């Protein structure tokens, strides 16, 4: 089966700005509605945030989502309305992935704890209305490290040196995001820069990519239960 591949450039994302904050949205969000950019499988939000010290998002409520956060640089303090070991407060730093299962509903806040913090956040639709929870997972450096599985979707983190190649997980839907660095041209795609994404809608063949410079990739193999929109 042939792969269906699309490149989504970071420069084409809808950018929302406020004092001390810039957010680039990959999918329709708020006042920006694009019927061709509603979701990709269960992924309904893939945002890149840049925050100044003490800036961020005050307490707000979510339900019916799994929210996954990866800090590229700086530090981000998460606080929530949960009690005990399932929640509270934690400052995420590079090398950690935070997972908030919103379940039936939870409040949380996210505030930068460094002079400048850049992080990527993904929202996945969830029908699991169990008790909300928050977990943090440390991710070991490597060319393809499984960081987290949420429902039927799995996140891999790749840290590649210049010239190093990696074969990404097979089958689709597959969402590959260049968090930092750049990828060389390959048989399926033009070169990719930081902020760009490669979306593979279907196909079962392996996809190999090569770093042009030191590069960090966030690759989601998404549940096929939800169709691409």
Q: What is the fold-level CATH name, i.e. the topology?
A: Jelly Rolls
Distance between the termini: 20 Å
Looking at CATH, the homologous superfamily is Jelly Rolls
Task: Specify the number of helices.
Answer: 0
Helix content: under 10%
Total strand segments: 21
Task: Name the overall outline.
Answer: globular
Q: Which segments are poorly predicted (pLDDT under 50) over 5 or more consecutive residues?
A: none
The major beta sheet can be summarized as:
7 strands, antiparallel
Tell me the structural class. Answer: mainly beta
Order of helices and strands: EEEEEEEEEEEEEEEEEEEEE
Radius of gyration: 17 Å
Mean pLDDT: 90
Proportion of residues in extended strands: over 45%
Instruction: Tell me the number of structural domains.
Output: 1
The CATH class assignment is Mainly Beta
- Main sheet: which strands, in order across? 2-3-4-11-6-9-12
Quickly give the CATH architecture. Answer: Sandwich
Describe the model.
The chain is 0% helix and 53% strand. The protein is mostly beta strands. It has a single domain (5-221), classed as Jelly Rolls, CATH 2.60.120.10. It has a seven-stranded antiparallel β-sheet, with no helix packed on it. InterPro entries: Pirin, Pirin_N_dom, RmlC-like_jellyroll, RmlC_Cupin_sf. This is Pirin-like bicupin family protein. Residues 20-124 form the Pirin N-terminal domain.
